[in-house]
Amino acid sequence: MIKRCYNQKCLLKDNTYRGYSVCDEWLNFQNFGEWYDENYYEVPNEVMDLDKDILYKGNKIYSPDNCVFVPHSVNSLIIKCDKYRGNLPIGVLFHKRDKIYQASCSNMKKEIFLGYYDNKIDAFNVYKKYKEELIKKIADKYKCMILNNLYTMLYNYSVEITN
Q: What is the pTM of this model?
């Protein structure tokens, strides 16, 4: 968390966390450790991630009010890869040769082809529908293993074209 936000070598290598920060309280390791001990839980056969923006989309501050532990496989459903898609909406690729847009989505195991479309908005809308249904299905699968506020957020998650 500290390294991601403040280590210049990390920020130069991957600027994803540029502008992100850790609250003053957590800059003291004992305070973070106390929060960790009170909030950490495990899900069988999962690596747990500390996440700062799954509960509050767009949040850039690691803090007790914003963070939650989430199974890595669930967290990976929400992660976006801006540096790989360029200016296209999430879930959309453009094939230059054929001048057509493709919608696809990872379902935690493999990339799922969702079809070809004449424009990026139609491709995005197909992706959005698939992704939101997938997240609901995964939320239901993990319902008894994750925190209620995380389940609620996942179940109500809305994919935006700006994601």
A: 0.84
Length of the chain: 163
Angle of CA points 69, 46, 75, to nearest 5°: 50
What is the tens place of the pLDDT at every residue in 9-30?
888 887 777 889 999 999 999 9
Domain extent, residue 152, equals 80-163
Q: Are 23 and 31 in contact (CB under 8 A)?
A: no
Q: Which of 53, 78, 103 is the last residue of a domain?
A: 78
Torsion region of 70: left, alpha or beta (phi above 0 gives left; psi -120 to 50 gives alpha): beta
**Each residue's pLDDT tens digit, 115-144:** 999 999 999 999 999 999 999 999 999 999
Same domain membership, residue 87 and residue 69: no
Tally of structural domains, the chain: 2
Number of separate helices (H) and strands (E) present in the chain: 7, 7
Single out the residue in 44, 62, 78 at which a domain terminates. Answer: 78
